[in-house]
Amino acid sequence: MSRPVPSGGDAGPDAEALVANAIQDLVAARLGRGFVPLALLFGVGAVDVLRAAPGGWLLAGGALFASGAMLACGLRIVQRSLSRPDRPWMEFAMLTSVVPPVYALYVLGWRGLRALAEGLSSVGVLVAVLHVLVGVWLLRSWMRVVEIERLVEVMSVHSEGEGTSS
Mean pLDDT, the chain, as a whole number? Predict the structure, then answer.
């Protein structure tokens, strides 16, 4: 459902609210898509833990930690889009923003490409290819979240520039 945008270049509170709502929708959609590969990786890690396979705890725990970090970063982006003042937890969320890409590179590189290079069996190769695909999916989802954060930064600089020139 599209919402009307004020005409005539009016950058009043209605336009700011519409932009904030659009950013919230973008963040929610991107995080929702990013949680799918994390849920898959958590499931694979949980199965590995039950089978006592090496790296199962790291795969499952990393998925949980990465999903928490993604959620915290998403909340930080939404708070900034609403022009709310920074809070202490927002700095922690910014620090944890390295977790999702590092975890995605671990899944992609170590669990995927390394296992693919070893190529022990046909099932091992299939699992390695799936790790590569899920790692790329997770990394791509994270990069979209970073793009939205950059959009919020540019918009906040632009709106601050308009406020001082009037």
Answer: 84
